[in-house]
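Quick question, first post here. What does this chain look like in 3D?
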Amino acid sequence: MVDTRALRIVFFGTPDFAVPTLEALLGSSHRVVGVVTQPDRPRGRGQKVSDAPVKARASTAGLPVLQPARLSDAGFLHDLTAFEADLGVVAAYGKILTDAVLAIPRHGLLNVHASLLPKYRGAAPVHRAVINGDPITGVTIIRVVKALDAGPMLASRERPIGPEDTSQDVERDLAVVGASLLVEVVDDLVGGSLRPVEQEERAATYAPRLTRADGVIDWTCSPLAIHNLIRGLHPWPHAHTFYRGGRLIIRRSQVGSRRDGSSSGTILDAGECLEVAAGGGVLRITEIQEEGGRPLTASQFLAGHRLVAGERLTSRP
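> Answer (accepted):
Ran it through. Tokens below.
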């Protein structure tokens, strides 16, 4: 049993998803003694170097911040040890922790993972769940072990996925759900009431990191599968297609109610709406963006861009 007192916690996290967990810990009875986050990188359309969300929040809270380029760096390991942390908490840090790091906090590390483990271990669990059309996902708090997202499960909480929900919607909610659940788990750890459950290895699936290539629309797939891809890749890297060699980013869609025998990718309507034949059905595009342009509703886009019914959207330029 952990001593019944406030724990000294070192927090590992980088993007928006991690901020609610950091906030919850700052508002808890425990003490965040330091933050580890990824090095500063160019961000946004202008590619200017700026603080990631966790670093920005840590700075406003007056917390010491470590940004190691390599977790094996001796200086970083020295500084991490100097925090004298009882526990480490990880939420979307973005790097696999080394044995040396795992050995430093006296009571190990906990991870806030955005799936119902053992399903969707890896970097993109929310996106893969939405792309696959899953009706439900959730968040799981696990102990961190060397194997990726394979540690004992300490608690989980579900979140339904609606048919129009995007990855952004789901991830935003899971960040909040996971934050409160994490604090409950830390409190239970202090009280000695945790009951770890080992993951069933044969049920494990992997959710690999997304790349821009994941966004290419295959119009032979069903309208529902393409719709799920579009919402699953929102807000990044977005689903996309090509028309007359130019790349079009498809941001929002609806599944049409009628069947159609036209060739996959054929533009069926480019008047007031944009409808495309897909896998024997119809996909209605409701929000679209020309590369380098701004997002527009389909009607706004069609008012300034001449797409021709009968021509095709393709998977290659």
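The chain has a mean pLDDT of 95.
The first helix runs from residue 19 to 26.
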